[in-house]
Amino acid sequence: MKFNFLKRKKIGIGTQIFLGFGIFTALVILLIWIFQITLLNSFYKFIKEQEIKSTAQYIENQYTSDNLTAVLEDVVLNYNTDVLIATEFGETVISATSMKSTFFNRISSTQLMSMYAQTKASGGEFLESYTIWDFSQGIGGDAFLGNAPLQENSSLPEGLVFLKTITLSDDTNLLLLLSTTVTPVDSTVETLKFQLYSLTALMILLGLSVAIFISRKISKPIVQITQGAKELSKGNYEISFDVKGGGHEILALSQTLNVAAKELNTVESLRKELIANVSHDLRTPLTMISGYAEVMRDIPGENTAENIQIIIDEATRLKNLVNDLLDISKLESGTQTLIMEPVNLTESIKKILLRYDKLVDYNFDFYHGDDVYVMGDDLKLTQVIYNLVNNAVTYTGPDKRIVLTQSVIDDNITIKVEDSGIGIPKDKLKNIWQRYYKVEKEHKRAQIGTGLGLSIVSQILDLHGGTYGVISEEGSGSCFWFTLKALDYND
Ligand code: ADP
Question: Burial, 154: exposed, middle or buried (Cβ in 10 Å; 0-12, 13-18, 19+)?
Answer without folding.
Answer: exposed
